[in-house]
Design brief:
Length: 263
């Protein structure tokens, strides 16, 4: 159990389990990255604190990976409080966004990090979890690197989870948009073909530059010039630490196969 610097008495309730007590809140991505070196099991499960799995969830994911030795991860079906499908996996848009798939059938590019199962050894071999993402896009970034290493991701219809999406992160908040915009660009710089990554970075910077000249602009915080400048600054600071995943031919092949997936 990773205790992400809680202050609500959680630590006192965890006396009978192994606890990795962090000195500061590292977010979902940072917490998983901190725990990964201690994992000694074949699989490592990802499960948000705002997600409640149905009985048999973990067994269904294990069975899915047992049936597919070529698969590195199995995705779950995440349900809203009304029973609608929020996500059964992630697709890759033609401009490099990760988007939830809510259709009942079809392939998935990646898994939603709210509930998934990943092979521990291949996760480590692919570089683990991107700790400095804090949260958002750590799942798509990880799935992309798994695919660049030649692995598959399988959807698992019988692994179902109730997910109160964004219960702990306030979707639409300044932090929400900061993490989303920054982490998408970092993911592209690591995983996408070079031309795609640089084009998306230039597009983001150009829009940031012209926003002050517009008489009107959307009210959403992701169009805040101050926030966008912070995004660009944090991307630049992290650039020296970004290690390109796979060779250019492999990056182009994965992009050609999955970018623009509609279902």
């Amino acid at each position: 159990m990773v205790d992400n610097a809680s202050d609500d008495g959680t630590a006192d309730l965890l006396r009978d389990v192994e606890v990795l007590r962090l000195n500061k809140n590292l977010g979902y991505a940072g917490g998983m990255a901190a725990a990964l070196p201690r994992v000694r099991t074949e699989f490592v499960a990802w499960l948000n604190d705002d997600a409640a799995p149905e009985p048999g969830w973990l067994g269904a994911l294990e069975d899915a990976l047992d049936d597919r030795p070529d698969a590195a991860a199995a995705s779950s079906v995440l349900l809203t409080s009304t029973g609608a499908v929020q996500s059964r996996g992630v697709r890759l848009t033609d401009d490099g966004h990760g988007a939830d798939i809510n259709q009942e059938t079809g392939e998935v590019f990646g898994f939603c990090g709210g509930a998934a199962l990943v092979r521990t050894d291949v996760l480590r071999a692919a570089g683990g979890v991107p700790a400095d993402f804090f949260c958002y896009y750590e799942d798509t970034d990880t799935a992309w690197r798994l695919r660049l290493n030649g692995h598959e991701i399988v959807p698992t219809a019988s692994a179902r989870v109730l997910h109160l999406h964004g219960a702990s992160t306030e979707p639409g908040s300044r932090s929400f948009h900061l993490w989303n915009e920054r982490n998408r660009l970092l993911m592209l710089l690591r995983c996408a073909p070079t031309g795609i990554a640089l084009r998306q970075l230039a597009k983001f910077a150009a829009l940031t530059a012209v926003l002050p000249l517009r008489r009107s602009r959307p009210d959403a915080l992701n169009f805040s010039v101050r926030l966008r400048l912070r995004v660009l600054g944090e991307v630049v600071i992290r650039l020296p630490r970004i290690r390109r995943a796979a060779d250019s031919a492999r990056r182009r092949a994965v992009w050609a196969r999955w970018a623009g997936q509609t279902s």
